[in-house]
Specification:
single chain, 405 residues, Helix Hairpins, 3 domains, 5-stranded mixed sheet, 4-stranded antiparallel sheet, 15% strand
């Protein structure tokens, strides 16, 4: 911005000087010509006064009487009619001259070379050019000073805004600049930072409290399941063991979600087998699919990715639940390389697809917050979640490979 301001100021200054140059040059030329002709007229008048007595007495006119009056490049002629009484000075091509009437009908004509006018104009044009260059330089210096005063607080505000955007609400704002518009931005930014800090602090406090309460409840459930796991009935024991495993995974997921809410980005990432996690969560959903008389079909092979296990499981659960409640027909899970694809036989219309990952607090909304949360979790782990087909509805989850090539 500072360079642009200086550059534009110089451009405007040059344009103004260019517009003013023509009339100034014409006026300067006219004034110089008038000065030269005035000098010639004064010289002719002085010569007339010096030679007046000689002309009246009829004496021969001598050049020595006028040499002290004439300039080095001047020429004088004293005529009476066609008779030349005196001629002195160098021959001149394209002369400028001025004549005055002398005594007894004489005419004194003084001329000078045009080089005198050219020399004067050259000196004046050079002086004018120096003044113009000085004016442009002064304008550039003033623009640089003003630009620094204008841009420095803006740069400081931009740096502070960047730190605020990164979550550092303790970032000190620059002092008032004295420019009302910039100080208004500073005040607004300070107010917004305070509100964001208060809002995030409240949300983080609530998230921590909610997680603590949920973890307490899950601990109680886990204790009951551990007792059931000691039951003599093998079916009860198997169901209790499976439920206890799900409880442990849910507790781990809560910890990971809490870390994400506090600004973490998958800090518990590790090398995991997408195939194993997909199979494990498919087993959790099989009974619900059977109750709906729908199939949850799996195919794929082992693959390793870098991800947070709880995030991967949470995304898979959301996608499977979404297919069960909003899709149709059989649901297929396919693992290939570092990708997991989940598809059903349903169709997602274009309008719904546009807002699919934006989320909604409306309970009646087609997909609520689930898919929006899934994409956030994937991005927090360096992965991505995409809708690759609307008919049939197909989602693809991709994570970084464990051993990139």
């Amino acid at each position: 911005m500072r360079r642009r301001l200086v550059r534009n100021t110089i451009l405007v200054s040059v344009m103004v000087l260019a517009v003013l140059a023509t009339p100034v040059v014409l006026l300067l030329k006219q004034a110089t010509e008038e000065a030269v002709t005035s000098r010639l007229h004064a010289t002719a008048a002085a010569i007339s006064n010096v030679l007046a007595d000689d002309v009246r007495s009829g004496r021969t006119l001598e050049s020595r009487d006028v040499t002290n009056i004439l300039g080095d490049t001047d020429r004088v002629e004293v005529r009476r009619g066609s008779e030349i009484l005196l001629s002195w000075g160098p021959g001149i091509e394209d002369p400028m001259h001025r004549s005055v009437d002398g005594p007894l009908g004489t005419v004194i004509d003084v001329s000078t070379s045009g080089s005198d006018l050219t020399e004067r104009l050259t000196r004046q044009f050079m002086l004018l050019g120096v003044l113009a260059a000085g004016g442009v330089l002064l304008a550039a210096v003033l623009a640089a000073i003003f630009g620094a005063r204008l841009t420095r607080p803006l740069e400081q505000l931009a740096a502070s805004a960047g730190r605020l955007g990164a979550g550092d609400f303790s970032a000190a704002l620059p002092p008032p600049s004295g420019i009302r518009e910039i100080d208004d931005i500073r005040t607004t930014l300070s107010t917004s930072a305070t509100r964001l800090d208060q809002t995030l602090s409240s949300e983080r406090s609530f998230t921590g409290d909610a997680t603590h309460q949920l973890r307490t409840g899950l601990t109680g459930i886990a204790l009951q399941l551990q007792l059931l796991a000691l039951h003599d009935d093998e079916n009860v024991k198997a169901d209790a063991t499976q439920a206890l495993s799900q409880t442990d995974r849910l507790t781990a997921t809560l910890d990971e979600l809490l870390d994400l809410a506090r600004g973490g980005r998958g800090s518990q990432r590790m090398i995991v087998h997408l195939h194993d996690i997909a199979l494990e969560h498919r087993g959790d959903w099989m009974q619900r699919y059977q109750l709906r008389k729908r199939n949850l079909i799996y195919s794929g092979s082992g693959s390793s990715v870098v991800a947070t296990p709880g995030f991967v499981g949470q995304i898979i659960d959301i996608l499977i639940d979404n297919a069960l409640n909003h899709g149709r027909g059989d649901v297929r899970m396919d693992v290939s390389g570092r990708q997991l694809q989940i598809s059903d036989e349903g169709i997602i219309d274009e309008e719904t697809a546009e807002g699919l990952f934006r989320g909604s607090d409306d309970p009646a909304a087609p997909h609520g917050r689930g898919l929006a949360l899934s994409r956030r979790l994937a991005q927090a782990d360096g992965g991505r979640l995409e809708l690759v087909s609307r008919a049939p509805a197909t989602f693809v989850l991709t994570f970084p490979a464990a051993h990139p090539t």
